[in-house]
């Protein structure tokens, strides 16, 4: 993909880099933001790497833990694509990112986000089968089926990412090369376009429905069936624990859905860019930190494996 031309007062210059504004322009907040984001990123790496290591234990060789391992890998990747550059911007005067670097970052962010949405839908389906058809669970959620669902999620994410990235960078970019964001994303790049983007914005709304709302509806449908099965459980304590797990899962998914839709449904509303920064920070930094806590470390089997592993380390 060739570098775009920056148009300014009738002159054409080759656009070879962008300048990211970062999270905040207030100098007094830079160090505080740096240490806060650095701490969150460290927690993301530790939590998700821990899940990746724990779920390879022989007692956790089940589809649910396979999906959790893939989810942790996606969360690590999402945070790593965005956070290191954000930390550099917070402490450095050089806030530039190359044209090719911007394309690569946008492609990776969209690919990882879209893949994670489809994976979350696959995980909800796995839980639905486990709760509503326990006798057929092993037959339905075979190793081949699980690998197929992950591969389908990745392929779907790749298609979405290729289309969105190619479409954004075929827009004519003009005016300042400054991106009012802390990474290369669709909304701040669309704002830089000097041509009519209404056609692209309609396409982006369709993509948002396909990538976010469709999996979200499938997740809600799965959990509705799960909750209806939970209501039939006679034990009040078992019902309470099941409701607690379902509600925490749905809370994270709803937060992820809300932040994504608010960002991408109105990509060219420049007046809300600061609000979009906060929302983007939630789905690229905060949610990858929450997922290990919500999906795994509250799980009884995972906690037992963690306790055993810590006991072995302490003996050494």
From TrEMBL:
<dbReference type="InterPro" id="IPR000276">
    <property type="entry name" value="GPCR_Rhodpsn"/>
</dbReference>
<feature type="domain" description="G-protein coupled receptors family 1 profile">
    <location>
        <begin position="47"/>
        <end position="295"/>
    </location>
</feature>
<keyword id="KW-0675">Receptor</keyword>
<dbReference type="InterPro" id="IPR000725">
    <property type="entry name" value="Olfact_rcpt"/>
</dbReference>
<keyword id="KW-0297">G-protein coupled receptor</keyword>
<feature type="transmembrane region" description="Helical">
    <location>
        <begin position="66"/>
        <end position="91"/>
    </location>
</feature>
<keyword id="KW-1003">Cell membrane</keyword>
<comment type="similarity">
    <text>Belongs to the G-protein coupled receptor 1 family.</text>
</comment>
<keyword id="KW-0716">Sensory transduction</keyword>
<feature type="transmembrane region" description="Helical">
    <location>
        <begin position="32"/>
        <end position="54"/>
    </location>
</feature>
<feature type="transmembrane region" description="Helical">
    <location>
        <begin position="97"/>
        <end position="125"/>
    </location>
</feature>
<keyword id="KW-0812">Transmembrane</keyword>
<feature type="transmembrane region" description="Helical">
    <location>
        <begin position="278"/>
        <end position="297"/>
    </location>
</feature>
<keyword id="KW-0472">Membrane</keyword>
<feature type="transmembrane region" description="Helical">
    <location>
        <begin position="146"/>
        <end position="169"/>
    </location>
</feature>
<feature type="transmembrane region" description="Helical">
    <location>
        <begin position="243"/>
        <end position="266"/>
    </location>
</feature>
<dbReference type="GO" id="GO:0004984">
    <property type="term" value="F:olfactory receptor activity"/>
</dbReference>
<keyword id="KW-1133">Transmembrane helix</keyword>
<dbReference type="GO" id="GO:0005886">
    <property type="term" value="C:plasma membrane"/>
</dbReference>
<dbReference type="GO" id="GO:0004930">
    <property type="term" value="F:G protein-coupled receptor activity"/>
</dbReference>
<feature type="transmembrane region" description="Helical">
    <location>
        <begin position="205"/>
        <end position="231"/>
    </location>
</feature>
<dbReference type="InterPro" id="IPR017452">
    <property type="entry name" value="GPCR_Rhodpsn_7TM"/>
</dbReference>
<dbReference type="Pfam" id="PF13853">
    <property type="entry name" value="7tm_4"/>
</dbReference>
<keyword id="KW-0807">Transducer</keyword>
<protein>
    <recommendedName>
        <fullName>Olfactory receptor</fullName>
    </recommendedName>
</protein>
<keyword id="KW-0552">Olfaction</keyword>
């Amino acid at each position: 993909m060739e570098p775009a031309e920056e148009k300014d007062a009738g002159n054409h210059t080759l656009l070879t880099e962008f300048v990211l504004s970062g999270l905040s322009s207030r100098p007094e907040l830079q160090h505080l933001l740096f240490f806060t984001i650095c701490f969150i990123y460290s927690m993301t790496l530790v939590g998700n790497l821990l899940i990746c290591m724990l779920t390879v234990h022989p007692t956790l060789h089940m589809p649910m833990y396979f999906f959790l391992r893939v989810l942790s890998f996606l969360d690590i990747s999402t945070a790593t694509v965005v956070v290191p550059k954000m930390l550099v911007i917070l402490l450095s005067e050089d806030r530039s990112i190359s044209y090719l670097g911007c394309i690569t970052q946008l492609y990776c962010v969209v690919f990882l986000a879209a893949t994670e949405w489809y994976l979350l839908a696959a995980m909800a389906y796995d839980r639905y089968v486990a709760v509503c058809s326990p006798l057929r669970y092993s037959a339905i959620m075979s190793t081949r089926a699980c690998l197929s669902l992950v591969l389908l999620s990745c392929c779907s994410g790749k298609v979405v990412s290729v289309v969105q990235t190619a479409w954004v960078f075929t827009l004519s970019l003009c005016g300042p090369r400054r991106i009012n964001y802390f990474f290369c994303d669709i909304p701040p790049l669309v704002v830089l376009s000097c041509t009519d983007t209404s056609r692209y914005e309609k396409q982006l709304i369709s993509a948002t429905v396909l990538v976010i709302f469709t999996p979200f509806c499938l997740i809600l449908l799965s959990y509705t069936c799960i909750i209806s099965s939970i209501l039939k459980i006679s034990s009040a304590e078992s019902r309470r624990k099941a409701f607690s797990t379902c509600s925490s899962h749905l809370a994270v998914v709803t937060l992820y859905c809300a932040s994504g839709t608010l960002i991408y449904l109105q990509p060219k509303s420049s007046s809300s860019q600061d609000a979009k920064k906060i929302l983007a920070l939630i789905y690229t930094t905060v949610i990858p930190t929450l997922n290990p806590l919500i999906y795994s470390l509250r799980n009884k089997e995972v906690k037992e494996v963690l306790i055993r592993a810590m006991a072995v380390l302490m003996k050494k």
